[in-house]
Each structure stands twice: as C-alpha cells, then as structure tokens.
Amino acid sequence: MTFANVLIYVALIALVLARRFSGHPIGNVKKLFALPVVVTIIGFADLSHGKLKPLAVTLIVIGAIVSLGLGSLRGRADKVSERDGSAYVQWGVVSLILFCVNIAAKLVLDLIGVAAGEAFSTAEKSLIFTLGLTLVGEAIVLSMRSGATWPGTDRSGAGRSGASGQPGRTGDAPVGWAPGRVPVSAHRQQAEPRSDDAERYSERRHEHHHHDHHGRYED
Q: Which of 26, 123, 133, 168 is the most exposed place for a label (fewest CB within 10 A)?
C-alpha cells in the first residue's frame, strides 16, 4: 500500500464521518448506495492484487460478515427524521460507538492474521473493503426505514409514466377497446329477445285481442 492510497483511505473515512455527523438527506436508492458501492469496489479491487492465502481469505470473509452486521445495527441506530419533505439521517452517539466497534473488530482480525504469519499489507488492503461493506449494511437498513425509491418513482412504487411504463394521456381509451366495434354479445342481445320480454309481448298481445273481441260482442 502506497502513501497515496493511505491518504485516499483516510480522506474517505473523514468524508464519511463528516457527512454522518453533520447529517444529510437520504435521497433515492441510487444516491444512498453510490458511495458504499464505490468504496466496496475500490477495496475489492485492492484486495484482488496479489494472491491471498486461505487464512487471509477466511479472516476477510469473517470481517465482511461482521462489517455488514454492525453496519445494519448502525442503520437501526441512526437518527432518521424528515426535513423539507425529505428523509434526513444523522449519526448519534450509538452510531459512533458501533462504528468504533467495527474498526476495533477489524484490527483484532488483522492482528490475528499477522500473528499467524500473514503479511501486514494484506490487512491494510482489506481496510477499505471493510469500510465499504459496513456502509452497504447501513444503507440497506436506511433504505427500508426511509422508504427510499429509485429515481423516477414515488414512494407508492408507481413510476412517473404509470404502472405500464408508458406515458399516460388524459382521455385515453381503455385497453382492448376499438372504435366502431360492437361486442358480439350486444348483437345477440339485439337479435334475440330475452325470454321474459317475449312472454310479456305475448301477454300484451293476448290481452289486446281479448279486449277487441269483447267490444265486438257488446256491439
């Protein structure tokens, strides 16, 4: 690990701490996961340079699980509020304690690896990877707590263009409707009178015939 890499990692950690303590809008899912994913990718790329021994891989996996778990706990402990109609997150004392516990757990795993014969450079490379994963765990919980959505969608899950993904227009005809086309059932109803209508027609005709015959008899 070069001195430039150390400066980059320290700057990233300082940025994360500054943003979390000052507080910031959570935003949409893309914005929420942008920094955690980028940091994780950078850390993984740094780890992939060189061959890792089985012990190093085991310690890295354990550290990844611990980081995700503590990050999720920190996401639960973060102060989430609403400001200007947007979800807002800020670290408190509990969030800081969990972050420090995460760093301490990482150092313990590194000491175990160095004591077992692993190179110290391997432990240094996994630092940024661990930071990225703990931020990912935190972002997952914050996205669920705040109801963050993808860009272009509201919190109800409907997109700007409607559920079908196509722009809707006022007055659009219902799906499956075609102008000038009459359902077959309507033709049948017009062509074939219902049975109760036929019976009523027969009764009226019979009653009219009866009255007509009765009038002739009186004459």
A: 168
